[in-house]
Amino acid sequence: MKIKDIFAKPIDRNIKGVITIGDEQDANVKQELEEYVVTHELQKHFHDFFKAYVASINHDTSEMGVWISGFFGSGKSHFLKILAYMLENRNVAGKPAINYFLDDNKIRSQETVDAIQLATSVHNETILFNIDSKAKNGSKSQKDAILNVFWQVFNEKIGLIGVDFWIADMERNLIHDGKYEAFQTKFQELDDKGRTWLEARNGFAFFKNTIKEALVAVGEMTEENADGFIEQLKTEYPLSVEDFAQRVNEYIEQQADPDYHLVFLVDEIGQYIGDSQQRMLNLQSVVEDLGTYTHGKAWVIVTSQQAIDQVTDHINGQDFSKIQGRFNTRIAMSSANVDEVINKRLLVKTPGSERSLMQTYSDDQHAINNLMTFESDITRDHYQSAENFADVYPFVPYQYNLLQDTLTAIRENGSDGKHLANGERSMLAVFQESAQRIENEDVRALVPFSIFFQGLDQFLDHTHMIVIQRAIKNERVNPDGVEHPFAVQVLETLFMVKYVDNFNATLNNVVTLMIDSIDTDRVELEKRVKEALTELTNQNFIEETTKGFEFLTNAEQEISRSISKQDVEPGEVSREIGNYLFGAKKIDRKFTYPKLNKQYTFNFNQFVDDQPLGLTNNTLSLKLNTPESNTNRDETELRRIALSPSEPQIIIDMPRRDDYTHNLSQALKIQKFVMDPGAYAKDARSNNIIDVKRAERVSLIEKVHVDLEDALEDADIYVGGELLEAGSKSFEQRLNTAQEHLVDEIYRNLSYITAIKSEKDIVALFNQELIAPDENRQAVEAVMNRIVQDADNGSHSKVAYKSILDRFV
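Above: the chain sequence. Below: its structure as tokens.
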């Protein structure tokens, strides 16, 4: 059976998964109303909204603002559009809009149903628009940017021109004076091509003389006043929030229904405001004055990526408590039920297919879930049951949240990715397109995460797409010249997770993202992915970091190449290893002899790959061999060196691993690069990348330190010709054993001491003519014998105290 045959509704049917504000064709509206899924979360949101809204019916209120927040894919734009349909309760395909919800029992709370029916019992008009796409070019920089758009859409709603406020005022006055129809007739008569006013007015600048003549002809203005009006069109219109609110209120009061409501529904207000204090103040003024003049009969409902307190908190220098008070109804859409929406609208199976899929899962559930393994502190969803498998197939549960995180991250990190926030892509649309791409595969195939990229590529930043295009043309990455090689699929996958904070693109995790069947041989797939990652790294399309593999933009590739060219000698890596291990006392150069009440401490010289660290004026040495060492590291040779009586030493031979040396070398290259004032252009883009590299260096060093400590535990220790093999005891225990062994070997007479004595005791001993006491008898006898020997061999009978100290201490 093919995948396309398992769905209750054709997978390739036209679904308006893309919610475009302004697209209100009846056929599309009917499908949206019919297929809108009211999840458990949305039940509460509908209740909260309509409860607040009905409070303004027959009552004055200043709480006429609604702030709907949620990240990409949460459904906030769709929710806004559905509210517009329900409030107007327009007749769609012979059926009132709210009946699509009430007849199908989509709203389960009777209290909410009652509120909806009361809200739609009054005359509501809605103005639904995306503020960024509706704004005039350049208006965003104006101090009244928000007001400008509100004026524009209001004028359009009442039939006036939207692109110019002077012309809109002219139309408004003509209507008030009862001369608008006469003006339109005269304008068409005067136009040389017989164009109607409504056809020509957006290009009013080309018809100034015709406009003037028509105004004079219908008696609206004298010729002198008409000349003044035409001249006035060149000046900036004096926008006023108060005038706007009064005009809206005048329109409301003209309506037959005394409880008429006008609702402005504004999509993506948060993105339009950005970090602009001025635009936020402008919105505050608009909402405040609408509340004051209309007494709650003009509502403002907005959507934003962020909650209102988050937006206002990051705009410095102003108290925005007033506007927060105006938006008293706040709806936070979590996207927690996005899977429910996709499953119910797109993935419902035929009864027979559902039973077959459930049986497949029951037969192979352990193998299926074992394929989906991730290395992460974040739990990634697996199939929970046979029913869940049948509901979600051919997708995997983790893909819902990860794709949502991916789309949000792309929007935040790419200039062209803003389209994603404007409703041009939705989770539903991407899932549908991905299912269609494998619809002719046999059941048991899965949608790999990599395939989602194909639904996004046309909306991505040029700096990202050019990397993909170059990879396709690269002969090493694509030796066969195919249209969509496997290595490029891996590269596309790495791009999608590049900006996702909680996902590490390790080899294991990338393999999981590439699984395309419940029969996938994971070992074979890992081999293919590893080969692809190696080639992509060699060609500088990606780099390996402490968190896994990372997609590189063009700018990042340039900096990565510059970093790779930095010269780091093996000796520099060795020294850094030694500085950390000896400096952090992971290898302590001081050794306290455990016997004789721990009264004796011995200092060791420190060497790393035969190069000294600090002074080397001690008798004993600790020599650390790293993977960078040129020393012959044969066991026999190391035993021989450690046995040398002329150079008492302990050799610490670290395992032949290059993970920490590679990372340390990379950290040193980054450090050299960022410290070079001429290494890169000082622009915002480069500085941002350099900041990331600085953070990467810190992360690399932290990982190196952890790996070095782990490597010590696997290090072999040689002393006195013996090997203290890794794994027998901890490194610290083995090092202590080696140090004690070396001290005992070099300071053999130390065992003669059985009691600790002070210098005063030693002087007293000489005054007693070195008569051996019971304590330290062997030591005293050794000293006595040395004195006698030196006296017999010397040219005089006196023996210096210092010569005895030099011999025995």
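The longest helix spans residues 684-713.
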